[in-house]
Amino acid sequence: MIAKRHRAVHGSPLTHARPPIAARRRCPGSTGGHRGARPERQPMLTLARLSTYVDSMETRSRVPLFCGAIAGPLFTLVYLAEGATRAGYDPLRHPVSSLALGKYGWMQTLDFLLAAALTIVFAIGVHRASRPSTWKPLLIGLWGTALLGAGIFVTDPVGGYPAGTPDRIPNATTHGALHDYVSLAGFAVLTTACFVFARQGSARWRLYCILSGVAFTVTMLISSAAFGQTGQLGDLAGLFQRIAITTALSWQTVLALRLLSRTQRSETVRNG
């Protein structure tokens, strides 16, 4: 009886027990110091971050291709400006590599190194844009490496430039020989790249790649044979080399722009 009266007066302990923590958190009217549910905008924030990440990935995929597009024009602009302002230098007769000689030769060396760096980065973009092909990015990367070697190893004087030097020195220096070997390897690699890229694409693209490879090879062989010679052919050696270089770098620029356009179309389709 005493126990019953005690429960009647004070009430059952269960009636005054606090609800479980999970129940209190689910209670919409709870205003205590307990942590509430996560804000509903979290999913929106997550989607925004994901969208930003995707955009950054798309940008990173385009940057290497852009590097390939500007490598040729920048290289050409620099050597044309140097050739027009260098005393004793004849663009029709002397090779582009000879601009690395003399007092301001460091400018052409930097030109080689910059073009090499941009082309090697371009190879990364080719790898992403032409998967699962391995030969295409490899050839572009080797071409960029050849440009790097041409900048590191300075050529020997040829064609009487700088002033006071013979048309061809009797014994090639080590760095001069390395420059020639690396350059010839690069020319062979680029020609191969033209024909490899000609295996796919439209008929117009294939024809352009084949013609570029043939024109580059023929004009480069003529210029290589003409350097150091006298007479009319020797006087035009620089011109033939410039035709070859322009053909090669123009092909690289067109290739980069083509891959950029294809990448942008793919992104447009993916984004709806």
From TrEMBL:
<keyword id="KW-0812">Transmembrane</keyword>
<feature type="transmembrane region" description="Helical">
    <location>
        <begin position="138"/>
        <end position="161"/>
    </location>
</feature>
<feature type="transmembrane region" description="Helical">
    <location>
        <begin position="104"/>
        <end position="126"/>
    </location>
</feature>
<protein>
    <submittedName>
        <fullName>DUF998 domain-containing protein</fullName>
    </submittedName>
</protein>
<feature type="transmembrane region" description="Helical">
    <location>
        <begin position="181"/>
        <end position="198"/>
    </location>
</feature>
<feature type="transmembrane region" description="Helical">
    <location>
        <begin position="63"/>
        <end position="84"/>
    </location>
</feature>
<dbReference type="InterPro" id="IPR009339">
    <property type="entry name" value="DUF998"/>
</dbReference>
<feature type="region of interest" description="Disordered">
    <location>
        <begin position="1"/>
        <end position="41"/>
    </location>
</feature>
<keyword id="KW-0472">Membrane</keyword>
<dbReference type="Pfam" id="PF06197">
    <property type="entry name" value="DUF998"/>
</dbReference>
<keyword id="KW-1133">Transmembrane helix</keyword>
<feature type="transmembrane region" description="Helical">
    <location>
        <begin position="239"/>
        <end position="260"/>
    </location>
</feature>
<feature type="transmembrane region" description="Helical">
    <location>
        <begin position="205"/>
        <end position="227"/>
    </location>
</feature>
